[in-house]
Amino acid sequence: MLLPRSIFDFENKLKKLKDLNIEINDKDFWNNPQHAQKVSIEASTIEKLISSLENLETNLADIKELIEITGEDNLNENDFLEEINNFEKMIEEIENEALYFGEYDDLNAVITINAGAGGVDAHDWAEMLFRMYTRFLSSQDMKYQIEEISQGEEAGIKSVSLRVDSYRAYATLESERGVHRLVRISPFDSNKRRHTSFAGVDVVPLIEHNEEIVIQDDEIRVDVYRSSGAGGQHVNTTDSAVRITHIESGIVVACQAERSQLQNKNRALELLKTKLILKQKEEELLKINNIRGDQHEAGWGRQIRSYVLQPYQQVKDARGNIEVGNVENVLDGDISVFIKEYLKWRRQGIND
Predict the structure, then answer these.
(1) Residue 220: enclosing H or E segment and its boundaries?
(2) pLDDT tens across the length of the chain (352 residues)
(3) Could you tell me which CATH number the domain at 109-351 has?
(4) CA of residue 105 relative to chain centroid, distance
(5) How deeply is 270 buried, as exposed, middle or buried, from its count of CB atoms within 10 A (0-12, 13-18, 19+)?
(6) What's the CA angle centered on 159, arms 156 and 165, to 5 degrees?
(7) In this structure, what DSSP letter does residue 77 have?
(8) pTM for this one?
(9) Among 22, 239, 276, 345, which residue's beta carbon has the most beta carbons within 10 A?
(10) Residue-wise DSSP of 100-130
(11) Helix, strand, or coil here: 245?
(12) By the 8 A CB rule, do 278 and 292 touch?
């Protein structure tokens, strides 16, 4: 008995793999190593899925044949343990792959953290999240670069944007979009009182081939300023950082990653185009939650995840109702469980 391949979009995956292999075999493929690595990983992932589907069909056929040969009256569960274990592993691989179904799942992404309500504690909390995400990205070998960072006056950061260049960066990080709430004894309170702080996290897919959006000079305001990084050789000492405001929509983007003002402007324009495309799609489809999710002020009652350090220790995600007791590990970048459960929760929402 063959599996219904249409459920897994089998034929389209075969076509996609064929197209990727044609690109890989092009003589100029490795001229852009970063793009080449992404394409190679995507091809390897699809190839692995196709292999799993084919092996699963073979495994099912073998089990059916074994049952027919043995006869129902002589069946012994131990005779099928190896086949059942292999079957379960292959099903798990296929189920994991089925979690990635979104239009933008495979794309690179920009993740932005903004301090919310809570004053200096919120600035410190934004920096803690910044550390958490960079540690996670490093542990997953996902390449990232700071696009823009704004320091807090007393401590922490007001905001930071990271560009993540990795296959399925958007799908991986989409779970983090929303308001993150921290409860702890404030290190900035001389009376050692418990404080609640908030930070907002946004995740935007970097849509490729966005030539469909043309931005005229009179549609934007461009401001240049000096980078405000944490110090060291990576901080520019000239006014090369760029902030672009799209006048009609009010969308603001910024970049200070490059030493050249022109390069920063081009990167900021790339992000602006992505945001305008998303906005256009939202308006056309009137389904904003399917593309960007709910966007709320970073304050009470809006959090997707709570991190409690006092009076007990727990991290709780509101979407999948996931609770983790080891807060220190989470803040050190161990957030894979939240990402995986979010992807399952997202898939369940489509099926319901």
Answers:
(1) strand 220-225
(2) 445 455 566 778 888 889 999 999 999 998 888 778 778 888 887 887 788 778 777 877 777 777 777 666 666 666 667 777 777 777 777 778 788 888 889 899 999 999 997 789 999 999 999 999 999 999 999 999 999 999 998 999 999 999 999 989 999 999 999 999 999 999 998 888 999 999 999 999 988 766 667 899 999 999 998 776 544 334 444 578 999 999 999 999 999 988 889 999 999 998 999 898 888 777 765 544 555 555 555 554 568 999 999 989 999 999 878 999 999 999 999 999 999 999 999 887 655 5
(3) 3.30.70.1660
(4) 8
(5) middle
(6) 115
(7) G
(8) 0.75
(9) 276
(10) --STTTTS-EEEEEEE-SSTHHHHHHHHHHH
(11) strand
(12) yes
**Cα(19)–Cα(104) distance, rounded to whole angstroms?**
19
What residues does 114 pair with on adjacent strands?
Answer: 159, 200
User: What gap in Å lies between CA 147 and CA 246, rounded to an integer?
Assistant: 18
Element (H, E) at 15: helix 10-24
The verdict on whether omega for the bond into residue 187 sits within 30 degrees of 0, i.e. cis, is no
Phi-psi category of 326—alpha, beta or left, where left has phi over 0 and alpha has psi -120 to 50? beta
Q: Beta strand pairing status for 314-317 and 303-308?
A: antiparallel
> What residues contact residue 60 under an 8 Å CB cut-off, 6+ apart?
1, 3, 87
Instruction: Look at the domain 5-97 and name its fold.
Output: Methane Monooxygenase Hydroxylase; Chain G, domain 1 (1.20.58)
Helix ranges (DSSP H) in 160-260: 169-173
Compute the distance between CA of residue 204 and CA of residue 105 in angstroms, rounded to an integer.
11
Taking the C-alpha atoms of residue 242 and residue 349, their distance in angstroms, rounded to an integer, is 39
Domain-wise residue ranges, the chain: 5-97, 109-351
- Residue 128 to residues 73, 278, 290: CA-CA distances in angstroms? 62, 29, 29
The arrangement of strands across the sheet holding 241-246 comes to 220-225, 241-246, 252-255
* Torsion sign, CA atoms 288, 106, 113, 232: negative
Q: How many CB atoms lie within 10 A of CB 236?
A: 18
Terminal alpha carbon distance of the chain: 28
